[in-house]
Amino acid sequence: MTKWKQSAKGAKQIPGGLGRNHTGSSAPKSQSKKPKVIQVNLTLQIVEAYEGSTRIFQFECVTGDKDHPTDCGVFRILRKSHPYRSHTYNVQMNYAMFFTHDGKALHQYHGIVPLSIVRTARSNVSEWFGSHGCVRLAEADAKTLYEWSSVGTTVKVS
Fold this sequence. Notes:
CATH superfamily: L,D-transpeptidase catalytic domain-like
Mean pLDDT: 79
Order of helices and strands: EEEEEEEHEHE
Oligomer: single chain
């Protein structure tokens, strides 16, 4: 039986899944051959990761604003890069998992204000607090998703 380290800040254990509380150097390794899918819910501003029909992780996120929307559709992770610095915006995008050819990615949030405050501001004040089309995640969440996923993993955005 594998013992997991103490849960990451704000982590939510998913019953019946691997949870999202692993904070070691690598994400839990699945023995399953079930297809992996990352689901981005633009309305709820959450990212869920599935193996088959089992939800393994759930994370809060911040997506694009109305002037820079996150593309809807079904994609695949095209490439992964860590560390990564955006050439367009000159900002860190660590644990980047690119899912569009124009550079949209799931990645670590790089701002100085906590992601939870940005999410609240985006929901209650203005979409201006959104991204330029990427899906921003807290560092621990981006790292976990990066280590769990592989190039080719399906990404559904709706």
